[in-house]
């Protein structure tokens, strides 16, 4: 629900749901990532920075989530024309030695399961697949 509200730029409602959840549960980084993703899609630099700062305070041990959040923050700065800020964030990620995990997706076609990553060329017909794009 947080993701849906964030995609619709209903950030106040999304934050209210998070607040309600956190009255009885520990904070979850996935909720904040959904909120940050929506803020990035809306190119809302101020909100994106605030969410990222909150995540650093709430989830200091969740390095993978913080790296992903930093990438989203760098992307929102870049898409808003603030290239220096985006570059500084990317440089800090690089200096930390931490790498963003590459996402994996899968699809079943005619009962056959296929897995792949972005820009993956392992499929035997990848030349045909990329030619259609």
From TrEMBL:
InterPro entries associated with the record: E_motif, PPR_At4g14850-like_plant, TPR-like_helical_dom_sf
A single BP term in Gene Ontology: RNA modification
Pfam families: E_motif
MF GO annotations: RNA binding
Gene3D superfamilies given in the database record: Tetratricopeptide repeat domain
Name used for this protein in its record: Uncharacterized protein
Protein's organism: Rotaria magnacalcarata
Lineage, broadest ranks: Eukaryota, Metazoa, Spiralia, Gnathifera, Rotifera
């Amino acid at each position: 629900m947080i993701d849906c509200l964030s995609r619709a730029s209903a950030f106040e409602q999304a934050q209210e749901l998070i607040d309600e959840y956190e009255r009885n549960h520990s904070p979850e980084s996935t909720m904040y990532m959904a909120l940050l993703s929506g803020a990035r899609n809306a190119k809302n630099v101020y909100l994106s920075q605030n969410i990222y700062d909150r995540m650093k305070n709430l989830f200091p041990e969740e390095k993978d989530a913080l790296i992903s959040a930093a990438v989203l923050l760098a992307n929102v700065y870049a898409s808003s024309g603030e290239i220096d800020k985006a570059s500084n964030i990317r440089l800090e990620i690089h200096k930390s030695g931490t790498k963003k995990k590459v996402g994996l997706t899968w699809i079943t076609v005619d009962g056959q399961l296929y897995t792949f990553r972005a820009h993956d060329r392992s499929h035997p017909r990848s030349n045909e697949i990329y030619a259609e794009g």
